[in-house]
Structures are given as structure tokens and as C-alpha cells.
Design goal:
Elements: H1 20-25, H2 30-36, H3 40-50, H4 62-67, E1 78-83, H5 93-99, H6 101-115, E2 119-125, H7 129-144, E3 160-166, H8 175-182, E4 206-210, H9 211-215, H10 217-223, H11 225-229, E5 239-246, E6 252-257, H12 262-268, E7 278-282, H13 302-307, E8 316-321, H14 326-340, H15 346-363, H16 369-382, H17 389-415, H18 422-425, H19 436-439
Parallel strand pairs: 1-2, 1-4, 2-3, 5-8
Antiparallel strand pairs: 5-6, 7-8
Length: about 450
């Protein structure tokens, strides 16, 4: 069995792990000192050589993304950290920022130095107020200790960091919609090209990276490229956080090398709750095609998951046992995508609305045989035609669920009702939950 590799999560269980003193006691900001003694081009080359791929879902090589910036023209360029984590099941960046915010701040400082940025932004979901406060405190501590601000560590490099709380929209996880929101406009995707590397924030060259991508940089610089490349697979290097949730005995964050299998992770997590069989699961969040127990031994790396018909995405592994109605689960996800569609393009705006209508009709027992084909036809009308990836992602769980569980859709239609007891699949016993007045007593 593959061992866990606590790197990003190495200090999570330390007392007051979010404090600067705790972080420095564990070697924090040593990588920044080392980086400031290197040439920026050498830092970019090191990240390229490490094989670090974007941990936000797309898996694009991080160092290559940095290298897309045009030559320095003496005017501002920016680093923007995408901390707008909000897809159902995805829950790795928020615990990272909550438990080890200085790891992200150090990564921001190193990355900014590498790309020649003197102002970095961390775009965070406004709903997670506790994380926002932790980040603000970490940035303040870093300024006071000389890790941010003017002449950092006597290197002559200046850096300001702004933590920005967004108003709460899933679409702002799309990098160009995030940039529009950061500029004070309505968060909607931009037409590309131009890409952010050429014309991003305030129409200046901009690098947009996910929290986990940036938080991985200090360990690469501090421990070396060879250390990082020793983990993972040939084309998917390093480690990552795997978020196990749903019907699993011990849900949580499991940090392991890329290429580990769900069977290995499940063994660490105590298996499925009550020993029930695994029915279906998402390898990369609700916007990725579903897997079943047939994929338990699929290596969780970008290439293997792609070859098996899905996407590694954010490694949000939502696990469902045989008590779960797949139609109901897909309906709940589709309602989310309908609600979060920004409305800019017709395929996504209208398509997600009708997908939700059809799914709700089938789940309520009022569907017809034609509704299943209509679902697939509507998905086909959206796929590849939406302005951004939200529309494509909304179709993934539907098309894959029909492919894998068409008989379950037909059962809803033939019986005129959902054949599952929804209380059996609930994660909590709601009947024993206290009444609202008791809960606040």
C-alpha cells in the first residue's frame, strides 16, 4: 500500500498551526530565503523540471504557465491565487488555508519573485469568514516579520499581498471571471484570447494559480526538484490532497503521491460505512464523469483517470454506497449548476435549466422514456458550445450516470416513483436532530 506523504498537511495537527511561530519552527520561510538568492529564471526552470501541474483541476504544467508571461516591460504584472473553492465535494484548499496559511503566503512570495510581480492577490470565497480572518492574520504576521513588504530579507525585492473576499459565485472559480470580479465587475468569463498571461488583471500580464499549486512551491524550492519528482508517476509528479467524503468510514483529507488508487485510500479510510458496497464515486468532483467499483484500482493520476473516461480534477472523491439513488444525486448536482450559471451564454443558461427540470420530473416519478433521450440531447447541445467549462462540467455527471445506470432511470419511469429510501442514504440521522429552538438554547 502506498504511504501517505504529509507535506502540505505536515503541520496541520500542530498546536496553533496557523501561527507564524509554529510555521517557522517547522522550517517555514526558509525556502523563501533560498529562492531570493536564486535567479527568477532558475526558479521558473525548477518548477518546470519538477513537473508540478495545476492542482485546481485542469492539470496544466505550472512552470509552463509562468513561462508564458511576456518579457518584463517595467510596468506591473500580477499573481492572482484562485482560492474560490466551491464545487460540490471539493474541500482541499479551505483546510489548507485554515490550518497552514503561511505555507500559501510563502508560496505567493516565491512565485511573485519568480515572475517579477510586486503585487499579489488572493481571491477567497467571502462565505468562509474564518478562513478570511486566518489569511489576513497570516499576511499581517508576514509583513511584521519582513517576509512581505519592502526589501524582503534584504534582497531588494518588494511585494504587497491583498486578500480579497469575493461575493460568492461558483463561476468566479473560472480564472477570467475571477479577474473581472477582482476588478469590481460582475463575475463572468472573458473571451480568450487574449489570455491572462498577456492581458489579465487590469489588462496587464497575470498568472492565475490554484491555492494548492502555489502552496506546493516552497517544498519544491526547499527540498529540491529530485525530491518532488521521486513521488507520483512519470507524467503526474508529486503529491496531492485527496478529499474523501460521503459514505466512507473516515472522511477527510489524505495527502498521498499521485497515482495512488481508491482501493488504497479506502483501506486507510476504514472502508465504506457499515461495510456496504461502493456504488459510484467521483474522481475529481461533481463536474467529472462518474466511476464505479470497477475503477477501484485505477491509478489516480491525470493520464490514467483520463484514459478510464473521467478527469482527476480537484481529487474530490465523493463516495456513495448502494443505498443512494443516482438520479437524485445527479439532480442535486444539476440544480447547483443551474443556480450557479452566470447566464452569459445560452447553452449553459438555458441548458442547465432544462436539465434540472427533466431530472426533477424523472426523480419525482413523472418522467417518460423520451425524457432520458432528451437529457442526452440537451447535454450534447451544451457540451463544447458553452462559453466556459461550467456548461461542460454540468453535463458530465448526467451522461456518465445514464451510461452506467440507465436501468435506474428506467426504473423511476416504470414505477412512477423513486425506488430508494432516501433516509437510508443520509449521512446523518435527521430525525434525532434538535429542533431549531433547542439547537440555539
Amino acid at each position: 500500500m502506498t504511504d501517505l506523504t504529509p507535506v502540505l498537511s505536515a503541520t496541520w495537527d500542530a498546536e496553533q498551526s496557523w501561527k507564524l511561530s509554529t510555521y517557522t519552527d517547522h522550517g517555514g520561510y526558509g525556502a523563501l530565503t533560498k529562492a531570493l538568492g536564486m535567479e527568477p529564471a532558475d526558479l521558473i526552470a525548477a518548477v518546470k523540471d519538477s513537473g508540478l501541474r495545476g492542482r485546481g483541476g485542469a492539470g496544466f504544467p505550472t512552470g509552463m504557465k509562468w513561462g508564458f508571461l511576456p518579457p518584463d516591460d517595467g510596468l506591473p504584472r500580477y499573481l492572482v491565487v484562485n482560492a474560490d473553492e466551491s464545487e460540490p465535494g471539493t474541500c482541499k484548499d479551505i483546510p489548507t488555508m485554515l490550518s497552514a496559511p503561511h505555507l500559501l503566503v510563502e508560496g505567493v512570495a516565491i512565485t511573485s519573485y519568480a515572475i517579477g510581480s510586486n503585487h499579489a492577490f488572493i481571491y477567497l470565497r467571502g462565505e468562509v469568514v474564518h478562513v478570511y480572518r486566518r489569511l489576513m492574520q497570516a499576511v499581517r504576521e508576514a509583513y511584521e516579520a519582513g517576509h512581505l513588504g519592502k526589501d524582503i530579507h534584504g534582497s531588494g525585492f518588494d511585494l504587497d499581498v491583498t486578500v480579497h473576499a469575493g461575493a460568492g459565485a461558483y463561476i468566479c472559480g473560472e480564472e477570467t471571471a475571477l479577474l473581472d470580479s477582482l476588478e469590481g465587475r460582475r463575475g463572468q468569463p472573458r473571451l480568450k484570447p487574449p489570455f491572462p498571461a498577456v492581458e489579465g488583471l487590469y489588462a496587464r500580464p497575470t498568472v492565475v494559480n490554484n491555492v494548492e499549486s502555489i502552496a506546493s512551491v516552497p517544498s519544491i524550492v526547499g527540498k529540491g526538484v529530485e525530491w518532488f519528482t521521486a513521488m507520483g508517476t512519470e507524467r503526474s509528479k508529486g503529491m496531492g490532497l485527496f478529499s474523501l467524503s460521503g459514505h466512507v468510514a473516515k472522511p477527510g483529507q489524505y495527502e498521498a503521491p499521485l497515482g495512488i488508487t481508491l482501493r488504497e485510500l479506502l483501506e486507510m479510510a476504514g472502508g465504506m460505512r457499515n461495510g456496504r458496497p461502493l456504488k459510484f464515486w467521483t474522481p475529481g468532483g461533481s463536474s467529472t464523469p462518474l466511476f464505479t467499483d470497477e475503477h477501484l484500482d485505477t491509478p489516480l493520476d491525470y493520464e490514467s483517470v483520463g484514459a478510464a473516461g473521467s478527469m482527476l480534477g480537484t481529487r474530490a472523491l465523493q463516495l456513495f454506497d448502494d443505498t443512494t439513488c443516482v438520479v437524485r444525486a445527479v439532480t442535486r448536482w444539476t440544480e447547483f449548476y443551474k443556480h450557479e450559471s452566470c447566464g452569459k451564454c445560452t447553452p449553459c443558461r438555458e441548458g442547465t435549466f432544462w436539465l434540472a427540470q427533466i431530472l426533477e420530473r424523472i426523480e419525482d416519478g413523472h418522467g417518460t422514456d423520451a425524457d432520458i433521450q432528451q437529457l442526452l440531447d440537451t447535454c450534447e447541445s451544451i457540451l463544447g458550445r458553452a462559453f466556459c467549462a461550467l456548461g461542460d462540467g454540468a453535463t458530465s455527471c448526467i451522461t456518465s450516470s445514464v451510461k452506467l445506470f440507465r436501468d435506474e432511470y428506467e426504473q423511476h419511469i416504470q414505477q412512477g416513483a423513486c425506488p430508494f429510501d432516501h433516509s437510508a442514504s443520509a449521512l446523518f440521522d435527521y430525525d434525532s436532530a434538535p429542533a431549531p429552538e433547542e439547537a440555539h438554547a
